[in-house]
Amino acid sequence: MTGPGTANPASQGIMLMLGAILCFSLMDACAKELSDSLPIPQILWARYAGQTTLVLLFLNRRVPAELRTKRVGLHLLRTAFILIATAMFFTGLAHIGLAEATAIISLNPVFMTLGAALILGETLGRRRLFGIAAALVGALLVIKPGSDVFTAFAILPLIGAVCLSGFALTSRYLGTSESIWTSMLYTGLISSTLLTAIQPFFWVTPSGSVMLLMLALAFSGAIGQFLMISALMRAEASQVAPFIYSGLIFATLWGVLFFGEYPDVLTLTGGLVIILAGIYVWYRETRATS
């Protein structure tokens, strides 16, 4: 029972999730701006080095205990999924609008439902298939294949969405036996070690302003990750999941304010279809498990 003026756990979780998505959207805006000055591997390094630093500082003496695992192979696979997803998304951001890229990668929960049926053998009924088909129609409206404004770079966030769903499915499988901190620690250590090793081949010495943007990207990504974990520790995933789609609202706002990008009617319509289809699939998922 909560006292006067104290939010219940579900409300706390929702507010923390909204804060996480706000931070992630700012991270994406930083990545888009940095893509004019730095190669994508260097931007990826800033993102994951920041996350790893935060996790190591937070865990402190608990690091050795959290490193204990019998599933190193799955952690490697999970890290590969998230690295490819982020690389595809950041590369796409360098060439298409922030709102467009965010709308396309927002397909990942729908792909996760499809993957759970194909890989994990979960039931996929007609209504879920309808939600998946509707989301794909929304993606086509955003990507606009065959039109004069189509660019192949719009396919990259779509690949990112598929990889992100693979990351989520692997996380779901690991979640039965591993703590969320173990998963975060391995993802951060593997990705930052790999990216640090290849930096000599890509490194561009940043100016002072670019360095500040790199720090902002690292900080917003790390804080966003921490807030998301905090949200999932306070509320059930089903209670906070629909609020992930607020990222499209933030992305549209930052696109207009920072980059002068005004989404066209098809992009806005497609984004809305993806959101509604995602929420519908989420609704069917929660009904099936309740």
Detailed description of the structure:
The chain is mainly α and 290 residues long. Helix content is 77%, strand content 0%. The chain contains 13 helices and no strands. The chain has helices at 9-34, 40-59, 63-66, 72-93, 98-105, 108-119, 126-143, 155-174, 180-202, 208-234, 237-240, 246-259, 265-289. Helix 5 runs parallel beside helix 13 (265-289). The model has no long low-confidence stretch (mean pLDDT 86).
The portion of residues assigned to helices is: over 70%
Summing up helix and strand content along with how strands pair, one would put the structural category as mainly alpha
The main β sheet shows up as: none
Give the overall form.
globular
β-sheet strand percentage: under 5%
Number of helices: 13
Fold topology:
Layout: H1 9-34, H2 40-59, H3 63-66, H4 72-93, H5 98-105, H6 108-119, H7 126-143, H8 155-174, H9 180-202, H10 208-234, H11 237-240, H12 246-259, H13 265-289
Helix pairs in contact: 1-10, 1-12, 2-4, 2-9, 2-10, 4-8, 4-9, 5-8, 5-12, 5-13, 6-7, 6-8, 7-13
What's this model, at a glance?
The chain has 290 residues and is an all-alpha fold. It has 13 helices and no strands. Helix 4 (72-93) crosses helix 9 (180-202) and helix 5 runs parallel beside helix 13.
